[in-house]
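Incident log, support desk, overnight shift.

02:14 A customer reports that sequence design results differ from what the structure should imply. Their input is reproduced verbatim below. On-call engineer (initials T.W.) acknowledged and began investigating.
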């Protein structure tokens, strides 16, 4: 599929894509809508129909991506990305580094460790390929509506080649610098700031409930005054309303927390508040909340406070002023 890409004219870009879950699927569909040809690699043939319906050219052969000028990966963790780039050694399967042509770019939009980003950048450089790290802030719904914030780092010429894709995927691209792993560090720390904010909202709401007040007016007061940031506004109401629909599920949050704590340890900079969030996440996963969004930190806080999960009938709502 990818072998003859240089033999035909391009309307936009030929793009390979690996990692077509809820985030990646929405991103791939947006690239198609923008006029790009997208070759989507999936492990299971039963995923091909879903992706074809979105306009993507689905394949179960990763070699079909090797003729693409840019290949995007949106994968869950270090191990998965390493296998895709370097190939599962035990199986003798080629990866992107050995298969892509010189001059091609691997655009890694996964949230991974800085060490893995450095390893991937070196592997691609050895093959004369470019590597750009571009993790994102935003959930699958934001991806669907092209509302992602993209943190991009890499060689200036590679960033310029990727910019048309960024424009098709997000509302803003923030260039972190020329060293790819810098973008991954910024993403991890940003996620930790969000996670600790959610934990603090959850703890405060638990206190409000224990004192017999309604949580939604409390959250509205906070987000309308001192805490009007995007994270507080986006997630505060969801915590107050017990909205835990899948989005950023707890195991993936825990993965990011562990990566951030490892970065902090390596830097000799403690992050005690993040350690609290880690323990809360482990508690939630142990209770079977694997498929819930990180707003379920609110559920965990309620349980830890001994709050009944019966429908809320607030006794003493905060009066309007």
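02:41 Re-run completed on a clean worker. Output:
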């Amino acid at each position: 599929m990818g072998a003859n890409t240089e033999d035909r004219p391009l309307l936009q870009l030929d793009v390979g894509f690996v990692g077509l879950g809820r985030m990646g699927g929405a991103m791939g569909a947006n690239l198609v809508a923008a006029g790009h040809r997208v070759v989507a690699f999936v492990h299971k043939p039963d995923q091909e129909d879903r992706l074809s319906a979105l306009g993507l050219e689905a394949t179960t052969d990763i070699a079909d991506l090797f003729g693409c000028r840019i290949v995007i990966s949106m994968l869950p963790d270090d191990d998965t990305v390493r296998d895709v780039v370097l190939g599962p050694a035990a199986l003798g399967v080629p990866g992107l580094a050995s298969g892509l042509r010189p001059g091609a770019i691997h655009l890694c939009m996964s949230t991974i460790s800085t060490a893995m980003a450095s390893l991937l950048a070196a592997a691609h450089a050895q093959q004369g390929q470019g590597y750009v790290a571009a993790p994102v802030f935003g959930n699958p719904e934001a991806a669907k509506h092209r509302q992602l914030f993209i943190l991009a780092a890499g060689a200036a010429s590679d960033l310029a080649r990727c910019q048309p894709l960024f424009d098709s995927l997000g509302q803003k691209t923030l260039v972190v610098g020329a060293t790819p792993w810098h973008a991954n560090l910024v993403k991890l720390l940003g996620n930790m700031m969000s996670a600790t904010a959610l934990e603090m909202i959850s703890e405060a709401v638990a206190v409000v409930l224990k004192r017999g007040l309604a949580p939604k007016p409390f959250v509205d007061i906070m987000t309308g005054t001192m805490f009007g940031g995007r994270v507080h506004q986006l997630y505060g109401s969801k915590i107050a309303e017990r909205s835990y629909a899948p989005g950023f599920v707890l195991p993936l949050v825990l993965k990011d927390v562990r990566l951030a704590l490892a970065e902090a340890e390596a830097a000799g900079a403690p992050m005690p508040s993040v350690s609290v969030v880690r323990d809360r996440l482990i508690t939630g996963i142990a209770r079977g909340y694997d498929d819930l969004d990180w707003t379920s930190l609110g559920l965990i806080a309620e349980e830890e406070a001994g709050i009944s999960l019966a429908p809320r009938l607030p006794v003493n709502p905060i009066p309007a002023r």
